[in-house]
Amino acid sequence: MYRFLMSRQWVILTLIALLLIPTMIRLGIWQMHRYEERTARNQLVTDALAAKPVPVEKLTAPGHTVTSAERYRTVTATGRFDTEDEVVVRRRTNSDDEVGYHVLTPFVLDDGKVLLVNRGWIPSDGPSQTTFPKVPAPPSGEVTVQGRLMPSETTAASGIKDLKGLPDRQIMLINSEQEARRLDARVLGGYIAQTAPEPKGDIPELLGNPGKEDAALNYAYAIQWWLFAAAVPVGWVVLARREARDRAQAATKEQDASEAEPATV
């Protein structure tokens, strides 16, 4: 009744099914690992944003690499803005996906070290990006700033190419090591995205809170792959039984037809 399973067509179909099952199981496991990784990163962001502000030099120092546990921690610093060495970061977007610049201003601490402060987003002056845009001035004199600590940007982590030959006072990446060489100063590792004090006008537009990754989607994909893996043998059995039933019905019809034929004299 099931001799057809040894046919070339069914052998190939069975081999494909046997390959699909472990492949789908492994894809489900990979999606579950992605879910766990994203959940862990989301928890780090939640914990960092909920932590109490601390002086910036408790978390970073010249040459320090900001860790994932330190990222987004709220820090404070007291000093003065150095607008003479201020630069803008090209090709940055705001919440409405408008292309402009981020304003990066060195902030000189009382002990002489420099903290890089991303004061927020400003729009482009026009189609030309060769001239330094108009940047609203920060508060003058000694001031206390607050912001979220961020690691230095690299091409590998951000995907942004560090282009050379840019117009004066324009950069592509916020990198504390590069800025330390440019400023010839002791620059704290990483930078901060300023959250206070808020600008007097709407510009610079402060950067919003970091978004969280959609970990639930990876969880759903994992379940989906495992359901697919379970459906393969079920589908194989259904197809085999249907094939056997169709063949049995065809054989019965042939037998009935032969028995109905009149005998030859």
Automatic annotation (TrEMBL):
It is a multi-pass membrane protein. The chain crosses the membrane at residues 219-239. It is found in: Cell membrane; Membrane. InterPro entries: Surf1/Shy1 (IPR002994), Surf1/Surf4 (IPR045214). Keywords: Cell membrane, Membrane, Transmembrane, Transmembrane helix. PANTHER family: SURFEIT LOCUS PROTEIN, SURFEIT LOCUS PROTEIN 1. Belongs to the SURF1 family. This is SURF1-like protein. It comes from Streptomyces olindensis.
